[in-house]
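User: Hello! My lab partner asked me to get a predicted holo structure for this protein. The small molecule is nicotinamide-adenine-dinucleotide, SMILES included with the sequence. Please write out the structure tokens.
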Amino acid sequence: MNHGHEIVIIDNLSNSDWHALDAIQEITQKKAAFVALDLTDKQALTDFFKTRSFGGTIHFAAFKAVGESMKCPMAYYRNNVLGMMNLLEFGDQLGSFIFSSSCTVYGLPDALPIDETAPLKPSESPYGETKRMGEAMLKDWAVLEGHRAIALRYFNPVGAHPSGLIGEKPVGVPGNLLPYLTQTAAGIRESLRVFGQDYDTRDGTCIRDYID
Ligand SMILES: NC(=O)c1ccc[n+]([C@@H]2O[C@H](COP(=O)([O-])OP(=O)(O)OC[C@H]3O[C@@H](n4cnc5c(N)ncnc54)[C@H](O)[C@@H]3O)[C@@H](O)[C@H]2O)c1
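Assistant: Hello! Below are the structure tokens for the protein in complex with nicotinamide-adenine-dinucleotide.
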């Protein structure tokens, strides 16, 4: 927004709230257009795209907790796969497309550290499977329909604006490591449980992507 781009945010607020919009306005001194909409609601999306098209789309909207996806897999397939499929049907109106994929598409890797040439493996969870399906759809959408697209396979991303006004603020108990860790450090959660016996961080993400 600070570079003069016009932004429209679509979210169903299932894991976010209105305060983020006020914070964006405070930071940029501009109001972001916001549309409360669920991507699984095809009719609502059709109404939305009747009057709009974009130079680019960054697709973040998904359920994202691996453990929760083991308990309610169909909710994950519905939200993540159907939501993305509905969106991609608007083709050229989306412009260049960035998909938030996940390191889960590598499954249990043959070798560490993982790089982009590592083969995709069967996912360890329904959540991971929704990201593999998303990548498959995206590839066909881009190659066969001629759109510009990229999938970014995030590991444990974290970020906040230097003002502290926006950052990781999930609704309820965080389903990802880093917000859980920061909430524990801030005293909101009592402790952070580390699973397993092997605490090496051999995939190198923290050094390669963040500290470098
Ligand atoms: N945070 C991580 O560690 C991590 C790791 C790998 C990949 N990812 C992926 O990155 C993306 C963003 O992650 P995040 O941590 O910012 O998640 P987040 O939950 O903070 O943000 C996702 C947003 O999408 C919205 N949403 C969910 N389903 C929707 C739907 N059907 N329609 C409209 N809005 C919907 C939620 O309300 C939320 O605001 C997700 O696709 C996630 O799978 C995240």
